[in-house]
Amino acid sequence: MSESVLQRARAVQSQDDPARPFRDALAALAQASIRHALLRDDVAELAQLHDLDVLVHPDDQRGAFAALQRAGFVLRRDRRLRHKWVFLRYWNGRFHAVDLHAAFVQNGIEYMDARLALGRLDTSGPAPRLGREDFYLHVLLHNILGKSELQAKHLPVLATLRAQGLDAGQIRTQTDRFGLSGHIALDREPAHLAGDAVAFGALRTAARGALLRRPANVWGLWRYRYGDRLRLRLPRRAVVLALLGPDGSGKTSFADALQAHLDDSPLRPGRVYMGCWGHDLLPMRQARRLIPPQMSHARLLARRCGLPVAVSVEEQAHLASRPSPLRLAAAMLRYAVKGAAFFVALSIELGFRYVKAIRASRRPIVISDRWVYDLEFRQGKTPFTHGQMFRRWFFRAFPSPDGVLYLTTPYDLVELRKPQLDRAQFETMDRVFRDVLRPEKPLELVSNAPPDAMVRAFLTQNWQLLLERCNRRV
Questions:
Q1: Quick one: three-class SS letters along 405-418?
Q2: Closest Cα to residue 381, out of 279, 246, 288, 253?
Q3: Which of helix, strand or coil describes residue 88?
Q4: Distance CA 54, CA 69 (A)
Q5: pLDDT tens-digit profile of 62-115?
Q6: pTM for the whole thing?
C-alpha cells in the first residue's frame, strides 16, 4: 500500500475518532514535559466526554497554554474563574473543552494543594492520574463544595478507593493546610453522607466555613458569583450575532438550529428578536397606528408647487386629482408629528429589548433574529420610498451587532416555504437589504441545505472568529 493511501486512511480514521481533540491535548502536554494529571476523567472514556479536566503545575501554566494551542485549542476568557482556564476546539460537529486547572478550585474556593498532589502522582497508566489519597479527597470535596448532595456516580469510586486502603498521613498533609483535618474523617463512610442530607449539609457548611477563613477564598467565591456582572467598560457585553435576509430565507430555522447546537457547549447562547415589526415587550399597540404612510406629503407639496422633485407612481396618481397645497401642507405637518411620535416609541421599544436581552445578558452570545435594518420596509414588507436619510442616521446611532449573517436562497426554494411571497417582492427585499448592509460587510450564507448542516458548516469555518469576539467582549 502506497504512503499516500496510508495517509488518507489515517486521516479518515482520525475524523471518525470523537476523542481525537482530547488525545491531541494530552499528547501535546506530554511532549512539552508539562507536569499534569487527569482530575476525574478516564482515558478509556474520552470519546464520551464533552470536557476534560486537567491539573497542571502552577509553574507550567505558560507552557500548558502553548501546548494546548498547538493542539488546536483556543482559550475562552471568563472573568469569574480563578486558577482555571477553559480551552475550546470545534471538531466533528461539536465543541470539545479542556478545563485547565492550576489549583484545586471549586466555585472559586481552593481546597487542596496542587503542588503536593502533582509530586505524588500515579504514573502507571497511559496518562498521569492523582494518587489514591489525593483522588479520594478531590472527588469528596468536589461534591461537598460544589453539589447539593453526594452524587451517586461517585459513590462506587469512593468505595473502591477506601477498599484499596488510604494513607491517613497523606490525607492529613492535604487537609491540615486548609483547616479541613477536623472535618474529613476516614472512619465516615461516604455512603452514609449520600443517604443523610442533614449530615451532608452540616459537613458542607463546616468545610466551607473552614476554607473561607482564607481571604483568597473569600475573594475567589465573590469573583465566581459576581465577576460577570461587573461591566465597568462598555465593550463588556454578550456578542451579538444578527441573522438577516429576505422573508423565506430560513432565518428562524437557522437560529433555532444554531441555538440547539450551542446549548450544550460553553458558548450557550441567548436569543432575542430585534426586528421593528412585532414581538413588542412594551405596550406599542397605539403607537403602531402612527406608522408613516408610503407617500411623502413633503414631496407632494413640493411637486404641487412646481418644484422638480421625483415622485413615486402612487404619489403621481394622487397628484392627478390636483389636491390643494394648503391641505397637503396640513397633511405634511400632521404626518410629521405622527411619524416623530412613532419613531420615538419604536426607539424606546428597541432600546428596552437591547438592554434587557443583550446588555443585561450573562450569556457569551446572543442570537438575534433580524435587526433594526428591517425598518427599511413598512410593516416589514414594502420598502419605504422616503425618509432614507433619517433611517441611515438611525442605523448608525443604534448599536451595531458584532456580526451579521445574511441568509439568501434561490427563489424556487423560497416559493415552497412562503408561496404568498412573489418573486418581485423577494428580489426587492434582497436588493434593499444588500444595499443597507454593505457597510457591515455581512457573511453570506446560502440556505439551500438542512439547518443543522448549515450550522455545522458555519461553525467549522468560523468558530475561532466567534470565540475571538467573545473574548474581546468579556
A1: EEEECCHHHHHHHC
A2: 246
A3: strand
A4: 15
A5: 999 999 999 999 999 887 888 999 999 999 999 999 999 999 999 899 999 999
A6: 0.83
